[in-house]
Design goal:
about 350 residues, alpha/beta, Rossmann fold, UDP-galactose 4-epimerase, domain 1, three-stranded mixed sheet, 12 helices, about 15% strand, binds 2'deoxy-thymidine-5'-diphospho-alpha-D-glucose
């Protein structure tokens, strides 16, 4: 396989790149990433010199570049992760999401179609999507693969749009596509604009922990390496034309999650128990804040034999340890523009 991974310098992408580079020395991995604020080559320091790994700095909106990558490297598989991924940023700047998530994905689909010239034998275009396309649940129920789309933020609308385009290329041109829709990931290398790493960073800085609304919104959390394992499984065994939901069977209200995080951190830092919880501050709610996401992941379990392997307590503890051991990473990503973003969002 000659695999083009887009967005491989980001949070999930870097775990996918590492897994494939290390587990499949016979595959050649091309990581195409624009290195936006969310992309960071430090995430891949340990494998950057591997023989089967190549980094290409570039934009999925650049059609000429995409064409040349497919031609030059004889790409056989695509794992498409590159995206603008933060809901709050989509509320302040929706166009950036349409550009990368919709136009960029369309360019990539066209480049694959043209390069593969309808000879699809041994090819696969794997699109990574999110559970947010299904909308928001009430107190009960789950998202299934056939749940109707009901995106409610500019981010989820742009991802839904890209999913529709991927399916349209399958139905119209027979492009061999597969899609997965995953719940909230957490783990090492998560950019501290998202809830868990933002709160870890703020606790380390002695800053308030901003909880939107009453903290009652529910998310289903999955350890990022379990997601990378699911992606590996679908790359190899996922059926063309199919969609697979991926989730952690692990629902938490934001407030309960942050309390657990505070307690684990206090214990690791030998703080007085309850010290970090005092930083919790309820702030103005996110506009259009989806109440609850919950994934039914029985299809990927029954058909491909994947299930999450890391419990939440264990995953959260590993995540905190990583941030405590990688303070330089945290300092680097929070220098520069981050302070600007933080003060616009929260102050
Ligand atoms: P991220 O924001 O951490 O990383 C995105 C990466 O894409 C960055 O490296 C960035 O530089 C790159 N990128 C952005 N625009 C680009 C462009 N125009 N051209 C090339 N590269 C570009 O995102 P993430 O959290 O790792 O998410 C990766 C994918 O997984 C996204 O498609 C996201 O929608 C999806 N997803 C994320 C989660 C989650 O909880 N984080 C859950 C389900 C699905
Ligand atoms: O469900 C999958 C999605 O999960 C992915 O598609 C997105 O890319 C990813 O960012 C994530 O979206 P969320 O909006 O759920 O994640 P976030 O970490 O931004 O927020 C998690 C919850 O915490 C959500 O209910 C909003 C809340 N929150 C978030 C932040 C940043 C707060 O209460 N305070 C905060 O400061």
């Amino acid at each position: 396989m000659n695999i083009l991974i887009t967005g491989g310098a980001g949070f999930i992408g870097s775990h996918v790149v590492r897994r494939l580079v290390l587990n499949y020395p016979d595959y050649t991995i091309y990581n195409l990433d624009k290195l936006t604020y969310a992309g960071n080559l430090e995430n891949l320091k340990d494998i950057q010199d591997a023989k089967n790994y190549n980094f290409i700095k570039g934009d999925i909106c650049d059609k000429v570049l995409l064409q040349s990558i497919f031609d030059e490297h004889k790409i056989t598989h695509v794992i498409h992760l590159a995206a603008e991924s933060h809901v709050d940023r989509s509320i302040t700047n929706p166009l950036a999401f349409i550009e990368t998530n919709v136009v960029g994905t369309s360019n990539l689909l066209l480049a694959a179609k043209e390069a593969w010239q309808d000879n699809y034998h041994g090819k696969k275009f794997y699109h990574i999507s999110t559970d947010e396309v299904y909308g928001s649940l009430g107190d009960s129920g789950f998202f299934y693969e056939n749940t109707s789309y009901d995106p409610r933020s500019p981010y989820s609308a742009s991802k839904a749009s890209s999913d529709h385009l991927v399916r349209a290329f399958y139905h119209t041109y027979n492009l061999p596509v597969v899609i997965s829709n995953c719940s909230n990931n957490y783990g090492p290398n998560h950019f501290p604009e998202k809830l868990i790493p933002l709160c870890i960073n703020n606790i380390l800085q002695g800053k308030e922990l901003p909880i939107y609304g009453k903290g009652e919104n529910v998310r289903d959390w999955l350890y990022v390496e379990d997601h990378a394992h699911a992606i590996d499984t679908i790359l190899h065994d996922g059926k063309v034309g199919e969609t697979y939901n991926i989730g952690g069977h692990n629902e938490w209200t934001n407030i309960d999650l942050i309390r657990l995080l505070c307690d684990q951190l206090d214990e690791k830092l030998s703080n007085e128990i309850g010290a970090s919880q005092k930083l919790i501050t309820f702030v103005k709610d996110r506009a259009g804040h989806d109440l609850r996401y919950a994934i039914d992941a029985s299809k990927i379990d029954n058909e491909l034999g994947w299930k999450p392997s890391v419990t939440f307590e264990e995953g959260l503890s590993k995540t905190i340890d990583w941030y405590l051991e990688n303070k330089e990473w945290l300092e680097n990503v929070t220098s520069g523009d981050y302070a600007n973003y933080y003060s616009k969002m929260y102050e």
